[in-house]
Amino acid sequence: MTIPAKLALPFLGLYATAIPAFSQGTYSECAGEGWIEKSDEAFAADCVDMAFNGSLEERQKLAWMFFARVNQLIDDPDGKGMSDTGKVPNWMAWPTDPDTFGTTKAFDFSTDPRNVLRPSAEKKDLEAGRIATADPDGANEEVTRNRISYDYLRQNGLTTKMDVAAFFTRNDYVDMPVGSIELKASWLQVTDGSPVPEGALTFAFESAEYWWRGLHIMVKMKPLENPGDVFYSEDPSWFWTTFEFNDNTGVAHVRETLITQRAPLPSDEIARLLDEAALGGFGLEAYAPNGTQIRFTQDGQGAIPVILGHTDMEDFAGVPNTAQPRYWTRFDASCHGCHATASYNPETQAFFPFSVPTGALHPGYNKADSSGTVHYLGQGFKSLDFMWPIAFQAH
Predict the structure, then answer these.
(1) Which residues of the chain have pLDDT under 70?
(2) pLDDT at 12
(3) If we measure between CA atoms, which residue out of 216, 184, 188, 217 comes closest to residue 201?
(4) Could you tell me the CA-to-CA distances from 314 to 44, 90, 133 in Å, in that order?
(5) What's CA 72's distance to the chain center, in Å?
(6) d(Cα 383, Cα 395) in Å, to the nearest integer?
(7) How high is the pLDDT of residue 120?
(8) Is the dihedral of CA 225, 227, 229, 233 positive or negative?
(9) What confidence score (pLDDT) does residue 122 get?
């Protein structure tokens, strides 16, 4: 991320002398000095080898680096900031889905961070044929994106159904630029019956105070050799991770027994990294990656699906009771698998229905839409490059 001019000075009183936590040894081009100041495009390009050829431990480090980059602190002149610090993460000044798809007005990247919650439709409601509303008494998911992603969507006319149809008269697939970042934050309103857990970060939106439950992060690292192969290729192009509040009910059980690709970092290593990013003491150590993902199956062999998700944002994928993750025996969540089916059929002008596959896909993979019509992935659908927001939000 190119650090904006309005980026706040390091969190006063909490910044320690920078320790180059990962600059020694392998992948120094990614993790060496200056990694926090690089542009999003340069950082992704420099880190592609670490992302796709590194060990699980190295991928976990990269997840923390992305988390630190998107959480660089900026001033909150209109509010009290997160947890009354006067600061908010940089992504709270990024365009949301409504800013991207719901208006023709160009987003002003120099604007102050918002203090209005702007949720997107929740996947669980889309799957059930409903559209979520911004209920101030409920849980809300808020999608934001960096400038690289925003500019590509707007400049290529991928924000309205009419323009999506026109796009596919000229193109066979969407191919997001390297350095594109898509985030999804989960918020829960603070009430007498649902207080803030100890250690969780909070923010007072105009409507009410909410606590932050976690953050999905997806980053385009490199294009596929054939971008049209998204549905079936085990070659990686995006890096996925999801951070969750460490004391969320049941998350420890899910991390330890159901997530398939996870390698927790020692607490002192996390502290060094946050200090290096000028984030020490802000409270981000109360969150951690549930894991990482780069393809459909472990080692790309097709046998074992990679499982990754957030116990709130993907609660619909938990079994037996979606509301009790501490008792789950199965978690049918795959960031890569789910997003891979984001696609459009130019002949029928229909988006592929939202679904939650795990493991490798094949042309016969199918899903019925809300009217009962069954759609087959291999019958005319073109890739949206893992971008469900196009299908969910184009109007």
Answers:
(1) 1-25, 121-139
(2) 39
(3) 188
(4) 26, 25, 18
(5) 16
(6) 18
(7) 84
(8) positive
(9) 52
